[in-house]
Amino acid sequence: DGGITQSPKYLFRKEGQNVTLSCEQNLNHDAMYWYRQDPGQGLRLIYYSQIVNDFQKGDIAEGYSVSREKKESFPLTVTSAQKNPTAFYLCASSIRPPGQGFTGELFFGEGSRLTVL
Amino acid sequence: AQSVTQPDIHITVSEGASLELRCNYSYGATPYLFWYVQSPGQGLQLLLKYFSGDTLVQGIKGFEAEFKRSQSSFNLRKPSVHWSDAAEYFCAVGADRGSTLGRLYFGRGTQLTVWP
Q1: What is the pLDDT of residues B31-72, one digit of tens each?
Q2: Are B66 and B116 in contact (CB under 8 A)?
Q3: What are phi and psi of A40, to 5 degrees?
Q4: What is the rounded CA–CA span in Å between residue B46 and residue B48?
Q5: What are A56-98's pLDDT values in tens digits?
Q6: What sign results for the dihedral spanned by CA atoms A8, B47, B87, A57?
Q7: β partners of residue A54
Q8: How far is B107 from chain A (nearest CA, A)?
Q9: A23, A71, B13, B45 - which has most CB atoms within 10 Å?
Q10: Residue B26 main-chain phi, psi, to 5 deg
């Protein structure tokens, strides 16, 4: 079955450490996204990528980095510069039908919960 | 700037009662509108979407939503709530042009509790 796989589901990190969250999709979708979710704040966009080897900052990119070397993969690194990294992280993807713009309809993974000790 | 407001942080209803979750948006162009649902510790699942055409859209699990351009609203409704509907619901707005190409803006969510 096609879908989006995020790993690990739970991750613990010590302060000062970088950590990388994996996101893989086999939906053949063009665009991929990383959102951060905190209680009562909804989803906030960290980074997004519409094509391979290209990505754009979202609203809260500071302290995060991404890469898009393959269409199916969009890993997120939470660096030590991120002041408050404890959160639930969601990866998503969307398709761009030929000759059309993005529809904006997102397909989500099941999330990764990062806790800084 | 684009934004989405969900005025109700938490709603409690009895099983079998009707439900309406409110959503207001701010967007300069014709929006694409979405409702997503999230169970605890899970990702988001699309309930329904509005791109154009009929302003009353039907979704999964018996949900529907009505787009009212004059009120900048896209409220979610269900005639009879089931206990399994307890979850968090997110409204989102997006478009396929300009600087916001491909991205969605989400509201802060409404937590739904269902009493037996």
Answers
A1: 889 999 999 888 999 999 998 888 999 999 999 999 999 999
A2: no
A3: 75, 5
A4: 6
A5: 999 999 999 999 999 999 999 999 888 899 999 999 998 876 6
A6: positive
A7: A51
A8: 6
A9: A23
A10: -130, 120
